[in-house]
Amino acid sequence: MSAPRAVVLVSGGLDSATTLAIARADGRDCFALSVDYGQRHRVELDAARRIAAMQGVIEHRILRIDLGGIGGSALTDPSIAVPERPAAGIPVTYVPARNTVFLALALAWAEVLGAAEIYVGVNAVDYSGYPDCRPEYLAAFGALARLATKAGVEGRPLAIRAPLVLMSKADIIRRGASLGVDFRLTVSCYQPDEAGAACGRCESCRLRRGGFEAAGIADPTRYHGAA
Amino acid sequence: MSAPRAVVLVSGGLDSATTLAIARADGRDCFALSVDYGQRHRVELDAARRIAAMQGVIEHRILRIDLGGIGGSALTDPSIAVPERPAAGIPVTYVPARNTVFLALALAWAEVLGAAEIYVGVNAVDYSGYPDCRPEYLAAFGALARLATKAGVEGRPLAIRAPLVLMSKADIIRRGASLGVDFRLTVSCYQPDEAGAACGRCESCRLRRGGFEAAGIADPTRYHGAA
């Protein structure tokens, strides 16, 4: 008998690598989905490939979609600078409706695979400025998924699993470390260099570095420049 | 003062052409969005271009995304035949999570544009076999949109408008005709030839032809073959 199937969204970052490790530890047959959405730096997708391969997924697909053509974020639009200090409100690194697009694609693949779960590494604690990382958003997507799919209509609803949603960065790092995640493979930086080394200055780098410190685990991240 | 902005999903079919005409009649500045999702026939996208141009949209964007890479539907997978007779249950022409993916993309663009509405031509009467065409599905997407976006969080929720959802095909045709929609520009067929002529035999052709008959309006569709 085969294990239950799950689609896992894998971005190349620390959070999704840990989420994939949790899905594996939950005994799921994992199908990793990454989205090439016109992000400025392709090193994220290279990281996603290495993470998926290392963790023994059944299959890894990378879907291309040009969200950069829609614009509106410092992560896809080169004319918007990546900030190095936190600002009030929703940050410019927010990509409009990104998680909704990603979860919709995961839903499509889950339906084709007959998977009963989608695992996603969203986190509401450190990134509370992003509306689509909150528990109430995930609950609304779960409700949508039950109505949106053939499986749901036929009585096999699809569950959205976000095991990190209420964890601190330090807790995520401790959990990932306990599951053997190789954090050297992951990229969190909003502006890495071409070799994947992190800037050490953007908000994502600050959160990551702070998380390793708080977890009492040595930070294996390669930094470039004066950071 | 400029008119309120709306994103309108335009597929190239009769329903979305009528929906766009309704949004224009509602006084909206319309931004047409089409999705190149690996559908077998590109004549739909050519039709979408002509419809958007004829109806004076502010801008028309075509986003590419390879749903064919996910498979599972006769509309994107050449190994699945398009049926010519209605079958029980959800038809093989159903593209997994298609409307969820399309609405998610529309949501992203609406957020960047500051649009307050998304118009979509889904219809629950003739296509009741598709789970993501029902009013309860649309309500769930509306609830998601309120939680998913910066605009929603800041108190400017985005509304999903589906003016056709409970109309018969004949009613849609009458409404479109009254608004001056040129139905010759639209393509409904699941297997048109390269010039855009319809087969006359697939379920979509049957519904369209029956709609013109019931509306008492001459069917301007070009048919190929023995139909």
List keywords for this structure.
homodimer, Rossmann fold, 7 helices, 5 strands, 36% helix, 11% strand
Beta-strand fraction estimate of chain A: 5-15%
- Which secondary-structure class do the elements of chain A indicate? alpha/beta
CATH superfamily of chain A: HUPs
Strand count of chain A? 5
Largest interface: A-B, 42 and 42 residues
- The Rg value of chain A, from CA coordinates, equals 17 Å
Biggest sheet overview of chain A: 5 strands, parallel
The CATH C-level name of chain A is Alpha Beta
What is the CATH architecture descriptor of chain A? Answer: 3-Layer(aba) Sandwich
Q: Quote the distance from N terminus to C terminus of chain A.
A: 51 Å
Q: List low-pLDDT spans of chain A.
A: none
Overall pLDDT level of chain A: 86
Number of domains of chain A: 1
Helix segment tally of chain A: 7
Briefly note the CATH topology name of chain A: Rossmann fold
User: Could you give the order of strands across the largest sheet of chain A?
Assistant: 3-2-1-4-5
SSE arrangement of chain A, N to C: EHEHEHEHHEHH
Quaternary state of this entry equals: homodimer
Gross morphology of chain A is: globular
- Percent helix of chain A, as a range, is 25-40%
